[in-house]
Write a structure and sequence with these properties.
Elements: E1 7-9, E2 16-18, H1 19-32, E3 41-48, E4 51-58, H2 63-75, E5 82-86, E6 92-94, H3 100-103, E7 109-114, E8 120-130, E9 137-142, E10 160-162, E11 173-174, H4 176-185, H5 187-193, E12 194-196
Antiparallel strand pairs: 1-2, 3-4, 3-8, 4-9, 5-6, 5-7, 7-8, 10-11, 10-12
Helix pairs in contact: 4-5
Bound molecules: zinc ion (4 copies).
Length: 225
Amino acid sequence: MSQPKSAGNCPFCKKSLAKRAMSRHLETHLAKMPPAAGKQAYHLRIEAGPYFLHVLMNATSSLTVLDSFLRKIWLECCGHLSQFAQGGAWGSEVGKSRKANAIFAKGVKLNYVYDFGSSTELKIQVMGEHSLSAKGIQLLTRNEPLELLCHGCEKEPAESICSVHWGDPGGWFFCEDCSEEHEAVCPDAEDYAWMPIVNSPRMGVCGYDGGSIDTERDGVFKVNS
Ligand SMILES: [Zn+2]
Ligand SMILES: [Zn+2]
Ligand SMILES: [Zn+2]
Ligand SMILES: [Zn+2]
């Protein structure tokens, strides 16, 4: 049950890159793109553990737009409160009406919290500033679904999580066959506890069952055979 490796595909040359190599790699592509006169966009990396997003954000878009994007791709379950902050997740609040060009510059870091109860915390960092045009927030890439294996057979991709057994030594990620076996010993699972495997740091939290955009990369990993 070690941490699965995290990688994504470059949207420009399609190369698969590890989480750590992605920022620099995208920067080299963005720097070579023909500049758009009078336009400005920030390349942001947003991460939580092995999960990451790279986006281009228009300089005149506000944090409200970023908040809404994060909810759609990774977070929204039941309309919880959220907050941007500087100096740690619970640092000083940065208002959502602020525009990107009023707060961002290369290297600037921001924290974000979704839901003050069962919270999901994200780290945002400006990786670069470019004379490019972006429509609000534009997704460049994200991590491909993590290779989460079934804790039962340890062979098949996990498809469901038993939320009442999260952290249990007997396992909590199950493939289709093993979930049937699990239901025999865990009546809660069938009643209410099953949650889907999704490609988000909010997986298994509150009622989160997946994003509403970029849904083709938001599920179970596919075994290459
Ligand atoms: Zn590339
Ligand atoms: Zn919720
Ligand atoms: Zn299994
Ligand atoms: Zn269970």
